[in-house]
Amino acid sequence: MHMPTPPKQPGTHPSCMKVNEILSRMGDKWTIMAITMLSEQPRRFNELKRLIGGISQQMLTRTLKALERDGMLTRKVYPTVPPQVEYALTDLGRSLSVPLLQLGMWVLDHLDEIEAHREMHDRGAQ
């Protein structure tokens, strides 16, 4: 059986590069927050903007478009004036929300410990 030659530089294999690109997007704080807010129920654009807080309209639009392109959410436009747009997770997006919510819970469970370590580290660095 012929084994493919590994790339000379780690992380440059085409499949690794694709994984890195997807992980980079899925690890983005705005993506995580959007998926978290949508994991509970479908939401309209302005509601998402309020819930996420601190995100610009442009960044939310960009984040939602990228998630729609990746098949993580659907975008439904209602024929109102002005048009109302609602976003909902797809099955793929819901499957991503599970580990993201678990990661968030892990952070909450360990937040005090992490902050104590940061304090000790920062005191030692001074």
Q: Can you describe this structure?
A:
With 126 residues, the protein is mainly α. The protein has a single domain, classed as Winged helix-like DNA-binding domain superfamily/Winged helix DNA-binding domain (Arc Repressor Mutant, subunit A). It is built from 5 helices and 3 strands, in the order ααβααββα. The chain has helices spanning 14-26, 29-40, 45-52, 57-69, 91-125, and strands at 43-44, 73-78, 84-89. A 3-stranded antiparallel beta sheet has the order 1-3-2. The longest helix is centred in the C-terminal third of the chain and has 35 residues, at 91-125. The chain is extended, with a radius of gyration of 19 Å. It starts with 13 loop residues before the first helix and ends with a helix.
Topology:
Elements: H1 14-26, H2 29-40, E1 43-44, H3 45-52, H4 57-69, E2 73-78, E3 84-89, H5 91-125
Antiparallel strand pairs: 1-3, 2-3
Helix pairs in contact: 2-5
Binned, the helix content reads 55-70%
Shape: extended
Largest sheet strand order: 1-3-2
Mean pLDDT over all positions: 90
Supply the helix-strand structural class. Answer: mainly alpha
Quaternary structure type? single chain
Secondary structure tally: strands: 3
Predict the CATH topology.
Answer: Arc Repressor Mutant, subunit A
CATH top-level class: Mainly Alpha
Please give a quick description of this structure:
The chain has 126 residues and is mostly helical. The protein has helices spanning 14-26, 29-40, 45-52, 57-69, 91-125, and strands at residues 43-44, 73-78, 84-89.
